[in-house]
């Protein structure tokens, strides 16, 4: 099941996987996001780069409706999050910064639960579980409890869960936090591979510059504002991404 | 409204998924089932047996004759099971929120009132299983309501379970950390249970303290107990039904408000990143 209101919808099919326009959000007197605009083209890997506290998680919470956006506009695959929340949410797969799997359930049970939350019937969910677990290399661990998996495997299981309802857009909020170097590389490579295999787009929030490749789309977020967006190579320029990022955020500090 | 875009079987699938997960967790926590049964049984076998000697009960509706104290207290203990279960469900909501599992639920495309309502209903199913298990054991203790009473009490258990679960849901939305929950248990469960008609009829309260009587009469738990008591003995209690239904609507409405991303708790939460 693709979700409510799916079907031949050419405008929605052509739209960016994510388009955010003039989004602002505040917590009391603290301005967390100010006039943020960005887009994630279909089939792209877009990195959202920012230091801790830049507003990445707030942005993700707004896109996933954990918070409500009162100013600005969020569209997921052409569906306005405020006016068509069900259609927009059905096209979204999310990997949160903190682990969100039920450790007492098995990997397959976690995926079945998530599939049900998207209205996917038992038989279809079982078939899809097999597919996505094979894609993330966990097909032999379907019956294991999540608590028995390593950190990297849990992350891969979360990616499988986020894919089970065939979303248009994967949101990954610092998905490699707490992982060792090898697991980090595996999770990153897996996400890039899934863009080709599943035809999904990814918005990858990170503060680690090594995770960004020159031909990735890049958005730099600092203190709730977009400082720069475009191809990583063109933003980095001759001085390299690290130096450019430091000088940009230093100037904005 | 966007909710209509989902086919009916998708709603059913989502509800089944939520109920299945709650049941699975309940089955895995065998100690929880045992504790839920032992608690009212201790009250029935020990407390009620002791009180039988000191507390005489004249004819009190819905009973047609004098009844033993154990008979009187049984509907209150059934309601106690549901009260504890409602709080246990909300405890698991707070736990889910702290561990991050709650977000899996809330990012579902289904509307939030439906997700919370499904979770609430799943908890009620679990509480009804516990309530019937308790009534089955009580039967061997010579507490034997009319046979049809076991059928008539079913809708009453659903309604009272929903009300107490909705109260727990609302409380869980207002609690920020798991540690705070113990205080709520003490400030909610015990006052609600003791200041009600679960252990003594309200007319006896009136004799000893008019103020306490008024407090008990204002306690929604009293009406949950009376709804169960009257249904179990095949009697109608419109007042209890109205109060329980009204409180259910109020508690559930407050919980949905608190879990709304634009209004309640979630709009004020800030996370790092």
TrEMBL record, chain A:
Gene3D superfamilies associated with the record: P-loop containing nucleotide triphosphate hydrolases
Listed InterPro entries: AAA+_ATPase, ABC_transporter-like_ATP-bd, ABC_transporter-like_CS, ABC_transporter_ATP-binding, ABC_transprt_ATP-bd_su_PQQ, P-loop_NTPase
ABC transporter domain sequence ranges: 18-248
Pfam family of the protein (one): ABC_tran
Positions of transmembrane segments: none
Domain of life: Bacteria
Keywords: ATP-binding, Nodulation, Nucleotide-binding, Transport
One GO molecular-function entry: ATP binding
NCBIfam families, per the entry: PQQ_ABC_ATP
Membership in a protein family: Belongs to the ABC transporter superfamily.
Protein known as: ABC transporter ATP-binding protein
Origin species: Paracoccus benzoatiresistens
